[in-house]
Amino acid sequence: MSESQSSDSLxxxxxxxxxxELERMIYGSPFPRALEAFWNGCRPWLxxxxxxxYELCLRDGDQDYASKWWRSPTNTSDIRDLPYSICTGKHDSxxxxxxxxxxxxxxxxxxxLHRDIIMKTxxxxxxxxxxxxxxxxxxxxxxxxxxxxxxxxxxxxSILDSQYGYTxxxxxxxxxxxxxxxxxxxxxxxxxxxxxxxxxxxxxxLRIAYRDVWDYNTVINRHSPFMRYSETHxxxxxxxxxxxxxxxxxxDFDQSVIFPLDAALxxxxxxxxxxxxxxxxxxxxxIHLAPPYYNPFAFDVGAAGFLFRRYFPVCIFVLSGSPxxxxxxxxxxxxxxxxxxAALFDRMTDxxxxxxxxxxxxxxxxxxxxxxxxxxxxxxxVVLQSDVDTMDDANVYWSKVPAExxxxxxxxxxxxxxxxxxxxxxxxxxxxxxxxxxxVRRLLQL
Length: 446
Known about the structure:
Number of strands: 19
Strand content: 5-15%
Mean pLDDT: 84
Radius of gyration: 23 Å
Largest sheet: 6 strands, mixed
Oligomer: single chain
Low-confidence stretches: 92-97, 319-325, 327-334
Number of helices: 15
């Protein structure tokens, strides 16, 4: 399944939906029995295209679409080659169901070789459909099969177009959640950052702005359809990250936008209202000042920078003593690991988008760091924690950078806000004033 395929006039066909039914299926909250009828109606047609759906299970009495469960088969492939994921153990009867987190348009399946795959339903011709099509048309399958060229985005292995206005993107099943806090060494954190930026760079080279940086929109090449939240699976992820064949990939492009392939990144602007798309956790601070337009590619880099600032400042330095001890009880002697990461974090999250790194700049920076950091540093143990303080205040990590390193990298440090910028920031925190600020900046194109 490597090319887009359309249904033909022979054999089984997928269900025909009215416009209202289709929109409810894609964007709304369809009733559980409507979901059951839709996916079971798709089953023979999908099987014709080599997609074997899991058994769909609906729990009695549940009225919410979140009650959609998929019962995993008892057999799974041992194939471990990219772009497919390594399955933790075998499917069994102890917990033989996979909840797709209420995603009404997500289905679980296997291909004819019993490799686990995921299907996502899209409106034919939608932006999301165009994005999957561009990825498939622009990136040869061999790139995704080779670890040295893997683009760190989850590829469509098939795009199945129905004749009724909806399309399925079929991708390998990878693992989520990642349990980022479980990363145990500097090298594991560096590997995540390098993969993440490789994925973002791959999208930006295709002129796809991601716009949905979020912990759960990244997957790892180890999955467990039947015990994804179990301690057994979590421990298998810890062991997997310690090896050399760990990869992360970006997924989920329903908030993404696409531009012409020949468009210059700096010229790709969208109205500020579009910045509401995607998760809010890591949105960069420059949009807070209500500019009339924003650049979604710079937005992506800023959001990724705040994700890194939340989890990985500990890779800049570590307090001496046992890495597993309570930080408040450890000696307050700072041992630098990779102090240059302070420069990366600031340059990725600079409020001034003209100074902000591009995805290519950030990826090159991290790859360069990974190439010269000693094995001892990469193997050094760390304890990651979600820390909003380092998201809000860069001084938390800059204050730990050794003086000699600080002098070298000071030019990358985000300068203090001007008095005017601080005033606008204060103004934007007042709801009534924020609306006025947006109107004035839009009117004057400031």
